[in-house]
Amino acid sequence: MSSVDCPSVLPIPDSKKERCEKLKAAFITKYGHPPTFIARASGRVNLIGEHIDYHGYSVLPMAIEQDILAAVSTNDEGKLKLANTNPGYKDFESSSKESPIDKNNPSWEKYFLCGMRGVVEHLGLEEVKGMSCVLDGLIPSCAGLSSSSALVCCAALCTMHANAQRLSKTELSDLCASCERYIGTEGGGMDQAICFLAKPGIAKLIDFKPLKTTDIKLPEGAVFVISNSCVQMNKAATTHFNARVVEGRLACQLIAKGNGLAWRDMKRLKDLQVTLGVKLSDMPEVVKAAIHPEPYTKDELCGILGVSAEELAQTSLSANTSEMQNFNLYDRAMHVYQEAERVYQFKETCENSPSNVMEGLGQLMSDSHRSCRDLYQCSCPELDDLVETCLKAGAYGSRLTGAGWGGCAVSLVPTNQVQAFLSQVTAEFYNKDERRASQIKESLFATAPGGGAALYCL
Ligand code: GLA
């Protein structure tokens, strides 16, 4: 176990003092004594690189100010006690050792249990301290801003600190990426990595295996505005997300088989690229040569791979995708390889800062959205409408962010036009619908790269 570069234990920053005081008061009301520490985990907005982290490709997110705080004290009853300042999230209590995670019911406490179990298993803890917690979250849920991963990360931090352990930010990122899969979603590691490794004022290029981040300085005069389509999407409650993971995996396995490679072990499109020794920019040609654009049926796939439906389920499918019958491999693989390329172009544009840097970044973001919409099919009509509205209101580029099928768009807007942009999007997207208008305060806001996870001493 490494003890270097553990998340910092800090005094409460001024910007959070008032909220932390309220949280402490809520804790005292609930448990009759004060908490001993507060853990913080932030949400994130992904600027570019959607649905490619689980294929091994680099992504480019930044942390946002909105976060989850957990006030915690240990208890001697060996119990995990959870309460939330939002009355919509019901209290929960279980033994701190035993914590079944029912994938069919992804309610809020399950994400906490994932993070807790992740740390316990990683460290091989035999005795687990009981914890009493009150949580307070400001990240809109099911909105593509990583509220669920932030909860997993926050739980991992609480468990680590309550058990007097130290883990590095990298270890925490990796273990949280793995343990979130207990809830059933086969995500990559972007959300957890940016949550632990973010730095204020800086976006990050994140490489995986091994996990590494590179600071990306965003251009002067660029503001990223987040807008919520107000369509909620809980990725653990539907099959959409895992269906895409599986389609990419099958594309990779089909191409591997056609090239005489050990296809069963090939799970990620980047591993395929590396094994073939082909440049990323040449991979779309490889896809074209090996895969037809029409969706494949399960029978066809079994025939090509030479396996039974049961074997296919074992080598390539997941629990909630075992019943899938049609698989769109061509479009999904095309999206992944082209989107991976756009991430590097975005990074280079930021670094070289040409005179048309804003147009360049905006173009890449809008291309990314089109690819998510048409090839990956992870948008929805409201989100497409919102992206169009943002472009019309003066954004250089706009795209869905996070898993999609609802949730937020992120738009690149010049600093001196932010006010006009916000007014126009308010008038044309939010005020035309009563439900959206009632949520505007937490749905439309400019953001800047925030800091990552931390522990506040009390
Ligand atoms: C979710 C997952 C991430 C990533 C995004 C899509 O947020 O948790 O790992 O796959 O979707 O880019």
CATH architecture of the domain at 7-217 and 450-457: 2-Layer Sandwich
Largest sheet: 7 strands, mixed
Shape: globular
Q: Helix segment count?
A: 16
Poorly predicted ranges: none
**Any idea what the radius of gyration is?**
22 Å
How would you state the average pLDDT, rounded?
Answer: 96
* Helical percentage: 40-55%
- Strands ordered across the widest β-sheet: 1-15-2-3-6-4-5
Hetero ligands? alpha-D-galactopyranose
Structural class: alpha+beta
CATH fold naming of the domain at 7-217 and 450-457: Ribosomal Protein S5, domain 2
What's the total number of strands?
15
Share of residues in strands: 15-25%
What order do the helices and strands come in, and which of them pair?
Layout: E1 9-10, H1 14-31, E2 37-48, E3 60-75, E4 79-84, E5 92-95, H2 108-123, E6 130-137, H3 147-162, H4 169-179, H5 190-197, E7 203-207, E8 212-216, E9 222-228, H6 240-258, H7 269-276, H8 283-290, E10 296-297, H9 298-305, H10 309-316, E11 326-327, H11 329-352, H12 357-374, H13 381-392, E12 397-400, E13 408-414, H14 418-430, H15 434-438, H16 440-443, E14 444-447, E15 454-457
Parallel strand pairs: 1-15, 4-6
Antiparallel strand pairs: 2-3, 2-15, 3-6, 4-5, 7-8, 9-13, 9-14, 10-11, 12-13
Helix pairs in contact: 2-3, 2-4, 3-4, 3-5, 4-5, 6-11, 8-11, 11-12, 13-14
